[in-house]
Amino acid sequence: MANKQQLRNSIKIQKCQVVLVDGLDGVTVTKIVDHFLSQLVINDEEKNAIQAKETEQEKARKLLDVIRPKVKSQDKENKSELFNGFVECLEKHNSSLASKVENADDSVPNDELDIDNILERVKNIDLNEKMLNRILMRMGSGWESVASELGIESIKIDNVRQDNPYSTHNQKFEAFNSWRKKQAHGRGALTKLIKAIYYCSVNCNVNMNKILECIEDP
User: Fold this and answer.
1) At what angle do helices 44-51 and 26-38 cross, to 10 degrees?
2) Is 143 exposed, middle or buried (0-12, 13-18, 19+ CB in 10 A)?
3) pTM of this prediction?
């Protein structure tokens, strides 16, 4: 399983796919291929598959198809050797592209997160009011679906809306804190909440990465 930095680096490349395919010329692709071949990152078969493509865009697209999974899976813990090598090659031949890749948004999509690993990491953390408040600050519209997933009744949701007509955050906090207090001193509550957020991420405007950051780096 890729660690956080590996995944973020591969996402940077993925999010720059269009500009890279449009911006990489045949010479640059060849230079990058030769570099990674000399580093034993790619093999002759992969090199030939890239060079066999007819147009520059097709070559660039195939190169990215080969490199991105390797960045995601092969970089060593807490290092970014393949990603850095890719950016350095770009820098030599197209500094503008290198800058775009290096500074690209690297937020991890919810559907690429390993929920089992996340639940293991948070299982011994108590959900207190302060942490709940931080989590709810990062939960946007659609929070009602998470509440329903946790078993909070619709009448409770309606009541907190009526009690706090001008503050969505207060609505959320009152509903979820009431639920939290019913758990055994908060133990296990965080796991349940994270699982509910993950399952409802399609309907709820939430970035799981931001929530994990506020839990692990308060």
Assistant:
1) 180
2) buried
3) 0.53
Q: pLDDT tens, 109-152?
A: 555 566 777 788 788 888 999 999 999 998 888 899 899 888 89
Do the Cβ atoms of 177 and 132 come closer than 8 Å? Answer: yes
Evaluate whether 33 touches 59 at the Cβ level (below 8 Å).
no
Residue indicated by tokens 């147009």: 55
* DSSP string of 198-216, one letter each residue: HHTTTTS-B-HHHHHHHHH
SS (H, E, C) 96-120: HHHHHHHCCCCCCCHHHCCHHHHHH
C-alpha–C-alpha distance, residues 99 and 184, integer Å? 50
Per DSSP, the three-state class of 217 is coil
Q: Count other C-beta atoms under 10 Å from residue 172's C-beta.
A: 24
